[in-house]
């Protein structure tokens, strides 16, 4: 039996710790997911999340955000299978090092297949599908395919540790000369995304572990290139000796949430081994065959885990652009419901998550309070005056009354807040 305890040098430290624990409980993503009807779990599929419509909205909004960045940054999306023969995993080396974490299926003829726990071997198959030229590089391939990892049941916990998940996974195949520029571009990608969320972050350069694969000279050169990329990037970073992957060094990005907790989501990893195992080659400027460099890259990491972190970071008070409950329209008076429905429809046609309050027996104050507790970003009260003038009476989630505004003005303001991914509450 093991006993654990927490000790404090002073009473004030104990009180501070208790406040932090209470705040963490209040922000628990599992409670927020239940209260806001975002997602749930069921024992028929342990470790796999069921996203309800509001949760799916957050999920898809995050995916669309990253996809919009792909367009700007020269990434191309690919779609790959979910099930592969173990021959692929033996070739990649994952069967030797990772098979106990893979779900397998045996078909007729005793052929064994495994659900993919990562996308990199499939992307290597794509690269070797035909002869590649230096003119094509860098190739940046992104994949949102579902991944499955056989985590121990005792390790599962909400969205932070699941068996079925998706991540903003990408692999870059480039020449050695392009490596530093690609690493800096990946770091800039991370910074631009985390700035939108309001996360502060720092980087860790994780170097050669023991044991590792590859020649010492190869490791030294790769680590020096990553260090130069971090110096050029200009953000705070620290050395994390011996914590690299067995196949190459990596940069891990640590974020800090609203209550000071650290999370590791983004990662940028070099891989020496897969290009060798798959004998990946391209024709260089000199007409000779050369080995490409492979970079594994994720910004959000697991979408499920990122949703958990964001839910707790915002305490369930989602910014407008990410919110599954953006607008609540409350009709006042018997003749205003038809107008309220028109307002809801107008905002839905502009791709807002808008709802109509239909609690006939409640007072206006109770309806407003219910909408605030449900974390609607904006509440529109409409009556005869608003119907006659084509306006809505606006108040924010925090209770600030913004007054009667023309619908088009409000729609323009909210569209700007949403499309710029602003985290401010009021316009």
Automatic annotation (TrEMBL):
* EC number(s) per entry: 6.1.1.3
The terms describing its cellular component in GO are: mitochondrion
Q: Does the keyword section mention Cytoplasm?
A: no
Keywords on this record?
A: Aminoacyl-tRNA synthetase, ATP-binding, Ligase, Nucleotide-binding, Protein biosynthesis
Aminoacyl-transfer RNA synthetases class-II family profile domain location is 53-319
Task: Report which superkingdom the organism of origin falls in.
Answer: Eukaryota
Reactions mediated catalytically: tRNA(Thr) + L-threonine + ATP = L-threonyl-tRNA(Thr) + AMP + diphosphate + H(+)
* Entry keyword annotation includes Hydrolase: no
Please list the GO biological process terms of this entry: threonyl-tRNA aminoacylation
Q: Which InterPro entries match?
A: aa-tRNA-synt_IIb, aa-tRNA-synth_II, aa-tRNA-synth_II/BPL/LPL, Anticodon-bd, Anticodon-bd_dom_sf, Thr-tRNA-ligase_IIa, ThrRS_anticodon, ThrRS_core
Q: Name one GO molecular function term.
A: ATP binding
Name the family.
Belongs to the class-II aminoacyl-tRNA synthetase family.
Q: What is this protein called?
A: threonine--tRNA ligase
Question: What organism does the UniProt record list as the source?
Answer: Seriola lalandi dorsalis
């Amino acid at each position: 039996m093991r006993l654990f305890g927490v000790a404090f040098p002073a009473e004030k430290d104990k009180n501070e710790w208790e406040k932090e624990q209470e705040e963490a409980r209040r922000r628990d993503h599992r409670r927020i997911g239940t209260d806001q009807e975002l997602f749930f779990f069921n024992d028929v599929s342990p470790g796999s999340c069921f996203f309800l419509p509001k949760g799916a909205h957050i999920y898809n909004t995050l995916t669309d955000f990253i996809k919009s960045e792909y367009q700007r940054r020269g990434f191309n999306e690919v779609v790959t299978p979910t099930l592969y023969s173990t021959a692929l995993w033996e070739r990649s080396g994952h069967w030797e090092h990772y098979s106990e974490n893979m779900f397998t299926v045996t078909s007729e003829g005793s052929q064994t297949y495994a659900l993919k726990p990562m996308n990199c071997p499939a992307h290597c198959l794509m690269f070797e599908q035909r002869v590649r030229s230096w003119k094509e590089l860098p190739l940046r391939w992104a994949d949102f395919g579902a991944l499955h990892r056989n985590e121990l049941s005792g390790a599962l916990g909400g969205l932070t540790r699941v068996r079925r998940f998706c991540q903003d996974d990408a692999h870059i195949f480039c020449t050695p000369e392009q490596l530093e520029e690609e690493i800096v571009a990946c770091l800039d990608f991370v910074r631009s995304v985390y700035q939108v969320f309001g996360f502060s972050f720092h980087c860790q350069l994780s170097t050669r572990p023991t044991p590792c694969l590859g020649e010492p000279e190869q490791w030294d050169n790769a680590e020096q290139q990553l260090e130069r990329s971090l110096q050029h990037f200009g953000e705070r970073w620290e050395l994390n000796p011996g914590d690299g992957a067995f196949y190459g060094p990596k940069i891990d990005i640590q974020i800090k949430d609203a209550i000071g907790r650290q999370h590791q989501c983004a990662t940028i990893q070099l891989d020496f081994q897969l290009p060798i195992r798959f004998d990946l080659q391209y024709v260089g400027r000199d007409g000779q065959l050369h080995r490409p460099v492979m970079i594994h890259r994720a910004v959000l990491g697991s979408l499920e885990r990122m949703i958990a972190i964001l839910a707790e970071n915002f305490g369930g008070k989602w910014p407008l652009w990410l919110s599954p409950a953006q607008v609540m329209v409350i009709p006042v008076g018997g003749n205003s419901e038809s107008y309220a429905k028109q307002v809801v429809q107008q905002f839905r046609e502009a791709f807002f998550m808008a709802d109509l309050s239909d609690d006939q027996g409640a007072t206006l104050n109770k309806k407003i309070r219910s909408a605030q507790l449900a974390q609607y970003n904006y509440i529109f009260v409409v009556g005869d005056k608003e119907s006659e003038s084509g306006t809505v009476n606006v108040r924010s989630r925090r209770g600030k009354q913004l007054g009667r505004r023309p619908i088009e003005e409000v729609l323009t303001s909210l569209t700007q807040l949403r499309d710029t991914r602003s985290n401010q509450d009021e316009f």
